[in-house]
């Protein structure tokens, strides 16, 4: 059998940390509202030196080091982002050049918003299975602070910047389960990054309602696609949009005893970066249980969702 597995994780966050108290000097909000409605306590905000590309490079480099893989052995790099700066050269091309990847490595940008990492993992896994690549790097990188309206308290308190990455390699056992993915037509316009200048806006209430009523079934479908039951899952790594979405999802999936990624508290919503960032930070701290099935589930703009079970 030719499958794939995760060989390592990496991440990068800007050094500037913005607290809820600082935010309440910018807009009419307060620490208590933000904590009780979202769980967020801090977020990292990009400085002039932090771009989607620079953070993607750092996260990918850290993941390759963690995996013990040489850049010259990488056959594919996928960068998922809602905030890719240029259409050409695109982010993955710049990452491939900066890391010194082989000229035969495929550089691919994708934008399926907050589920971008899970889509990237699915595409990389399939490329490895069919033999197009032996090693792939999948990155989520975002500078949401650049597209948020800093006078709009309903969105600026939610977002953060950062990047996370995973290295996937060929394996004789399939450690990345089949993806379960799709979209929600009635929420097609619920998350927008549009206008000139581009601005992020969302129908927070509609997304919240979908997330606490419908998302659990899609997450269950990813577990079933892997031929597993929820009892087999040791780690839940869901899109870090809001702790008030993560906790009901965990409860609906009977996850009280699981290791749950809750990096939203420290990093806010970093869209495509949120799942690999949270996993990589837990991995680096030595907190992430090893060798146990981990349920990834992302959802957001498009309106797209995707999930799969990976064993780290
Ligand atoms: N500080 C203080 N008060 C605020 C703030 C703030 N920062 N923001 C809004 N309010 C006020 C509103 O004006 C409103 O006041 P009113 O009742 O007097 O009108 C009240 O708080 C309630 O506002 P709601 O928007 O209804 O608050 P809600 O409880 O729905 O929480 C939130 C909003 C956090 C956005 C929630 O709806 C949510 O998390 N939705 C899901 C978002 C999501 O998952 N997006 C994922 C895809 S997009 C992406 O990830 C990039």
Automatic annotation (TrEMBL):
Pfam families: ACP_syn_III, ACP_syn_III_C. The keyword Magnesium does not apply. It comes from the Bacteria. Keywords: Acyltransferase, Transferase. CDD domains: KAS_III. Residues 224-311 form the Beta-ketoacyl-[acyl-carrier-protein] synthase III C-terminal domain. Residues 108-183 form the Beta-ketoacyl-[acyl-carrier-protein] synthase III N-terminal domain. Its EC number is 2.3.1.180. InterPro entries: ACP_syn_III_C, ACP_syn_III_N, Thiolase-like. One of its GO terms (molecular function) is beta-ketoacyl-acyl-carrier-protein synthase III activity. PANTHER family: 3-OXOACYL-[ACYL-CARRIER-PROTEIN] SYNTHASE 3, BETA-KETOACYL-[ACYL-CARRIER-PROTEIN] SYNTHASE III. This is Beta-ketoacyl-ACP synthase 3. It comes from Curtobacterium pusillum. The lineage of its organism: Bacteria, Bacillati, Actinomycetota, Actinomycetes, Micrococcales.
